[in-house]
Structures are given as structure tokens and as C-alpha cells.
Amino acid sequence: MSIEFTLTAIPYEDKSILEKLIQLYRYDSSECEGHSLTEHGVYSYKYLDHQWTEDYRRPLLIKVNGEIAGFVLLILDVPKAYTKLNKAETTHVMSDFFIMRKFRKQGLGLKVAHQVFNQYRGNWEIKQTAKNIAAQHFWRKVVSGYRDGEVLKEDYLDNEHWKGPVIAFKGFRESQL
């Protein structure tokens, strides 16, 4: 059975939806990434408002049969000075990616990621934290299964800027690393 979904931009008017989903996302990843609650009982996410104030960010909502199933936060056309491995002039970065537990293990995440790669063609960089083994397996599967893509470089970084695996990915033939 094929899972059907929609992927749409989240308008500023729906900021509260993303804010609530980020709470679930941060809770879900807290065991791997060490997120802590504030004294008010919420997880902080300092880039929430940036999703609508910085032109290069794209907050996207995932729905399955009209039901919210997750989100994707993108950073588009990042200059090479700010990427970890990719040396192309500009690179897209998968900032945050979340599928609700109810919709996992059905191929939804893979399909959503592939649609994002098709929609925003070019160079990609995907980082995973060192302790999030599930994310590492997921992104290797997603990138290696992308029909138009090619993994150009994968490395484990351990420096002051990042600790964990990074995949540099080319989404079409004309781009270069």
C-alpha cells in the first residue's frame, strides 16, 4: 500500500502548529541529543521565528490524508563558507526533519525527503548528531536510494562546529563538490 502525502509551506499564520510540532520533535530526540526542558516545561528552539524572517529558510508541513504527520525545515542556497563538507558555491541543508511516530516505518520519510530533493534540486548537506544512530541509518538509506543522486562525500566530523556524520549529496549532474 502506497502512502500519499502533501508537503506545503507553513505560513506565518500557522506558526503555532510548527511550534507545537517542534515540542514533539525535541522530546522525541531528547534521548539522543540531550534537549532539556526550560523552567516553563517547554523545549526551546531559537530558530522558530527565523523560519519566516529569513528568505533562505523554508518551513514545510507534511500531511497524510489531511492529518498532520510532521515537518521539514530547510535552509536553501547556503554559501560554501557555512557548509561542513560541500564546497559547491551554494548548498541546501536539511535543517530539521520530523515524522510523527504514528507515520514512521511506512516509507513516508523516504518519500518526503525524495520529493524535497526533487523540488529543490542541487547540492545538499545532511548532518546527523553523533548519538542519533536511527537518523544516521535513515539518511544513508534515503540518500543512497535517491534515483538521481550521488553521495559525493560522507565523513564523521568531531570539531568545535559539529560532532557527528555529515553527508554531502549531489542531486543532479551539473553540480560539483
Identify the notable features of this structure and list them briefly.
177 residues, alpha+beta, Aminopeptidase, seven-stranded mixed beta sheet, 4 helices, 7 strands, disordered C terminus, acyltransferase activity, transferring groups other than amino-acyl groups, Acyl_CoA_acyltransferase, GNAT_dom
Q: Would you give the CATH topology?
A: Aminopeptidase
Reading the helices and strands in chain order gives EHHEEEHEHEE
What is the CATH level 1 assignment?
Answer: Alpha Beta
Rg over CA atoms, rounded to whole Å, is: 16 Å
Strand order of the largest sheet: 1-2-3-4-5-7-6
Calculate the terminal CA-CA distance, rounded to whole Å: 37 Å
Q: Spans with pLDDT under 50 lasting ≥5 residues? A: 173-177
Domain N-acetyltransferase: 8-173
InterPro entries: Acyl_CoA_acyltransferase, GNAT_dom
Keywords: Transferase
Organism: Alkalihalobacillus alcalophilus ATCC 27647 = CGMCC 1.3604
Description:
The chain is α+β, with helices and mostly antiparallel strands and 177 residues long. It has a single domain (6-170), classed as Gcn5-related N-acetyltransferase (GNAT) (Aminopeptidase), CATH 3.40.630.30. The chain has four helices and seven strands; from the N terminus they run βααβββαβαββ. Strands 1-2-3-4-5-7-6 form a seven-stranded mixed β-sheet, sandwiched between helices. The model is unreliable at 173-177 (pLDDT under 50).
In short:
The protein has 177 residues and is α+β, with helices and mostly antiparallel strands. 27% of the residues lie in helices and 32% in strands. Helix 3 packs across helix 4.
